[in-house]
Amino acid sequence: MDESVVVIGNTSDSPFAIDIAHYFDQIVDISDIIALKDFQNTEFCPRFISDENDLENVGSYLRGKTVIIASTSCSEGRNAMAMRNMIIARAAKDNGAEEVVLLEPDLFYSCQDRGPCEEHSFFQVERSPKDRKKFDGQPFTALLNAQLLKLSGVDRVFTVHNHSASTQELFKDHLSGKFHNLVPHDLFAHYLVNSDIVDSSKIVLCAPDKGAAPFVDMVKTELDINNPRVLKMDKSRSGERSISMEPSHASEIRIEDVKDKDVVVFDDMVRTGTTIVECCKQIKEYGARKIIFCVTHFHSSPESREKLSSPYVDEIVTTNTIPAILNRDTQGRLRKKITVLKLEILIVRNIQKTLDLDASTNDEADPYSVDMSSKNPRWRKEMGRSWNKNYR
Question: Is the model more confident about 69 or about 13?
Fold first, then answer.
């Protein structure tokens, strides 16, 4: 463990923060580093724990330290967590921290990346009244979040697969370039090749819309198999829950070419499942042997669970950027076909390299750990693979 680094969470029992600290080889429990207290009036007042008899380092206990706040949404809610992060960051700075790093895999408020006025967009392009009307009355919250984090003392942000180019650029602007968006294309590629989820000789990659196409191209480049073909789809939306979809002219193959193939559909996030189910339905109707949906951010809700339980989706591979998906009750019926790749190893490796820290994780090990319900038919094979790899 690099002793200049201190890892904490924004809740004392955060499994994600605990795992991040573990992969940094931090021996001290996160709850022994910071006390996350509330006053009687419910106001949050965190306190970094120090030697009560030390009167020489008052206000400088964290001098020379890099404090990493591992932040995920939980039962407290995203709004409360955002405020807690800012107060913890200020506590670190007020007690001498040299650098405060916010690790937030699912970046809060990043979807609110525009506002109602023409200047309420990072790219400063001319926007029609019709486009701006969609944001009428709303705040430009992604910008506010970046400004408040900087003001509170956050020097650097790590996130995972942020979909908004506008949000990414405004964070880079406000943090002097210290914004790092970790896209897990290599993680998904590694799992596809090293598990039995697909037949690598039959694989086709699919982008369900234009937004997912760059991610799919990154996965294709990373895959260590014979040049998988890519099917690209175009989507048009006629309502909040109504879409139509057809193969794109930019697609490498026709939709007819998916017959008897293992098709892997990629996206950055899922909230309702409407787009993915429609895409998978069309692919299945053209004779695909198997369809796997790979998604980074899984917002589990009754609607998404119901839609993705569709027979058109054979398996789901996601990550734990939103840790609630690890809960079997949250997975619901999907536990029979869902695999969660836990990102902590990948994230710690990237932070260590970016901050030029002594590496505590083995680059030869898998960049993730696998969480799978015993209800999943592949569970025994997956657990056997892990056992053989770790204990041979």
Answer: 69
